[in-house]
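Curious: explain these tokens?
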Amino acid sequence: MDTVLRDVRVVDGTGRPAYRADVALAGGRIAAIAREGEPRPSGRATVAGDGLVLCPGFIDMHAHSDLALLRDPDHSAKAAQGVTLEVIGQDGLSYAPVDDRTLAEVRTAISGWNGDGTAGPDGPAVEFDWRDVGGYLDRLDHGFGGEGIAVNAAYLVPQGTVRMLAVGWEDRPATPAELDRMRHLVAEGLEQGAVGLSSGLTYTPGMYASDAELTELCRVVARYDGYYCPHHRSYGAGALAAYEEMVTLTRNAGCALHLAHATMNFGVNEGRAPELLALLDRALAEGADITLDTYPYLPGCTTLAALLPSWATEGGPDATLARLRDDAVAARIRRAMEVEGSDGCHGVPVDWDTVEISGVGTPALAGQVGRTVGQLARERGEPPFAVARRLLVEDRLGTTVLQHVGHEENVRAIMRHRVHTGGSDGILHGLKPHPRAYGTFPHYLGRYVRELGVLGLEECVAHLTGRPAARLRLPDRGLVRVGYRADLVLLDPDTVAAGATFEAPRTLPTGIPHVLIDGRFVMKDGRRTGVLAGRSVRRAGSRPAGR
């Protein structure tokens, strides 16, 4: 054997009770599991378990590491948490498939999530030398001089980017020819390895798609046994209707559904998580294939531009900035946001005291990070919208924000559900990112398992490993089982905790000394080893680009 993990407490990802064993690894896979009383394997290297829990590597079902994986070989934000696989291409906006025009547009549109790919604090410049999904996945496989990337990554075809390619940024129905092109682009992305389709239905241009259009794309996804992952049309005033819309749409398409960052936020939804769960239980009882993910924190995180009404962002970033510079149009935008409740803010009038600046793309604006728009407005004696408007223009829409609009009882109720999985929704870019990017998985285990007892250890690990692997249709990941890939975590259940806080969001966790990918230590004794064992994880039966 290559390595023997001696005398560990195995929590295998199924939810079943833990047991003591020696676990032997060879060739990147789990080669033997010897329970107490069985002959003990030997290996070239031995790691003393000393009562540590051994579990499958955590699967981050909602990640925004699309460029970070190519810029930061260390990537301790995820590796130190025990994450061995991230699902990227989220919220309907990412970097494949693209052409030269749409690549430039999407780089600007989601610079608040990932930076724009130029050299800077996030790392060296990204060489955007791909245009299709297969090319992007190949790029991940051969990152950093051909060695690979820090952790594994699966990809969702982004519906908004697809619509950008086929239709543009206009708020109108797709023509039959445009719909055919979108079907082709989705199918091509799935054939090249994507595991499903994502949407951002409060983000332009994806939000301009009708249910009929989305249903047609989901029918393509269903043919490839993938799943649809929507950031649906409202997490606020229209949340329950938006969830029901996605359930109905995917059932009509015969497509599996995974609800992204399934929260019930804003004052209108306080205490209403049971209504959401009842809706899902009815659909599951009728045969629907549904899962969801959440992060264990109250604030959300997005771009400041995302709060604008959709009509103000039609036409793309340059058109949005032109409207913001026009005083008359800006007055209409202000009314939509502060009085009517814009669709960008989920139908709820914006409370500027809940909107905290977390990152900027322009260094000269860094002094505004960590303050709410309301605070900045009071300090300057200005209306809050004037502060937000100027920031959007000067930062060219690159500003990220935390929205303090969550409810603890909703978070706890949803994480208990039998189809729940974990997703960080972690935005790594910016001076003061949300701590979920660095802390989601240890926070589940430390706060919600050990301290609060909301979930049992075995149950929580199943939520973070076996269940997401099943959603991704991965036949050899997500469980501690002979023959499975040795993507594994050794953790101390008595000390595991998120180090990241809102005040110090880039602090690494404690209590996770060892993390392995393909049997290679990417974290050892609490330190990043420099090993680049990550690769793209492609849909079964997919083919490389151009073949």
Observations:
- The chain has a mean pLDDT of 96.
- The first helix runs from residue 68 to 71.
